[in-house]
Amino acid sequence: MPTFETLLYAVEDGIATITLNRPEKLNAFNTQMMKDLIAAFDETDGDDDVRVVIVTGAGRAFCAGADLSAGAQTFDYDKRSADDAEARMRDGVQRDGGGLLTLRIFDSLKPVISACNGAAVGVGVTMQLAMDIRLASADARYGFVFARRGINPEACSSWFLPRLVGVQTALEWCYTGRIFPAQEAADRGLVRSVHAPDDLLPAARAIAREIADNTAPVSVAITRQLIWRMAGASHPMEAHKADSRGIQARGRSADAREGVTSFLEKRPPNYPDKVSKDLPDIWPHWTPPTFG
Question: How many CB atoms lie within 10 A of CB 275?
Fold first, then answer.
């Protein structure tokens, strides 16, 4: 089992739980946490025993945003340490660390459930936008506070947020930068449901169990990519072509035979195909991650 400097990582009965673990800093996001989270998603994608991923926070916060310990220079890329700069460097440009993380989550081959246990501000909320199902504790608070810190939204949130809540709500939250409660997040579609604090992780695990116990992992991986990637498609024909390639590939698979047979025999399915080796290439422009 891998260990991380800023995270706790555990796998039990097909469910990986990633816990942001800087509780003394309200799980504030720094370069090490970015690297640890990206590595953790590499781990979940490469482990066929992992069927679903849950992300939560230790202590009373989910993530209070960027670590501001550098003071006024926090967001000045030219003032970062050499290690920070190297971790964010892509094609000769220092990229936004939150964006590198959300792009990695976007490529995840496993479903990702957010169990937001407390404050989620700045990158603490934008990292959740790339997750598939978001649950909130009644203690959770959200804030797209960028304009109040003199910067702009990051972590690809200008792409994700309007698709989740609509342009009007996205602009209101980002223009004002105000902190809002979990119930408002639910009312406007940011989160699926709000739970008593002690019920949050059990509710997330119940959804994860429903996925892990009843569905074919390769089919779920394809479905995740279809839904997310088609969110930016210019015409339904793009979806039709990808759907058709997927159905052609999966229709002749051992999983499809098992899915139909188990249904007819009224028994739980036992899907044999593995995400690590049986994922078909149905997007000509996309190469699935490889591991091992």
Answer: 24
